[in-house]
UniProtKB/TrEMBL annotation:
The keyword Amino-acid biosynthesis does not apply. This is GNAT family N-acetyltransferase. One of its GO terms (molecular function) is acyltransferase activity, transferring groups other than amino-acyl groups. CDD domains: NAT_SF. Residues 1-148 form the N-acetyltransferase domain. The keyword Transferase applies. It comes from the Bacteria. Keywords: Acyltransferase, Transferase. It comes from Cellvibrio polysaccharolyticus. SUPFAM superfamilies: Acyl-CoA N-acyltransferases (Nat). PANTHER family: AMINOALKYLPHOSPHONATE N-ACETYLTRANSFERASE-RELATED-RELATED.
Amino acid sequence: MNIRPAVASDVAALFSIRTSVRQNHMSLEELAELGITPGSLPGMLVGTGRGWLAEDGNYPIAFSMADAEEATIFALFVRAEYEGKGIGRLLMVQAEQWLASQGCKEIWLETDADHRVRANGFYRHLGWQEAGMQDDGQVRFIKSITLG
């Protein structure tokens, strides 16, 4: 397995992974309603945004994305057949370290508030703390980070 920075030519792979997940699934149409499209995604990988793609050989299996201006990790998705292998944790570390290198001290993310969603326990296990419900039904997690 290899983790590398995601680039504009990876957009199709990122959408393939995002629409393949079992929990917190969204279709291409639902993503487009949120403004996440093949045209908008490349802009989220440059400037204050970055992404990382995990591959098994040449097969894209997971990705994470972060935005330093917002101090947020806004995407972390792993293909179902690769869950439980530590890939999500490695991608989270990549995103957290990059945000710290950009001067972020406290970062946040939001996810489905449903207690049955495994992501909630995953984030808690990695040291994230629940910070409250959002108006859209998502739960916000926060984490203090340092470089190193």
